[in-house]
Amino acid sequence: MYQEHDFHYAMENTRVVVSPQCGIETFGTTRFHFSLVSELLDEVDTVRIRDGRIEAERPRIVSPHHFSKLLLDGFGDKAREYADWVESHGAAMRILRYGFQFRKTDLSERVVREPMDSALDRLKDKIGAGEDPFATLIAGVDDAWEVCLLKFSMEMIQKSAGGNVEEWQRRGLI
Length: 174
What we know:
- By secondary structure, the chain is an alpha+beta fold.
- The protein is 39% helix and 29% strand.
């Protein structure tokens, strides 16, 4: 289990080297293909490269009515009061709900004797030569590598939300 300092360290030391050319699709599932490179701390000039897929479910618009029913399991009376207030006062409020699934069945990893920068450059060139608009390259932390993927997921939500809302508006859905 991650300790709080592991989580913060991973968040601070994760960077997206190559961003996907496409954001999260508004009306369908999006499959991002990632390569996550991390240095092995106990070996010099050695990295672990993890390849896999993260699926982003199609975003949903959550109305105040549904928000008041959503995600309150285990919360107390104050949370229920707030949800009720949102339902009665938030007629114009809409919340975007994004769902991600990390499928470990698509995960592969290999250890390579190569400095981190060299591995990143090589993979960057490989992604640039390919035709996958959903490919991404992430530099991260080995022990808390899943946290690195969560950070990437959150960044994709932030980048995609505006375009998703614009598309819904253009189609008259909100």
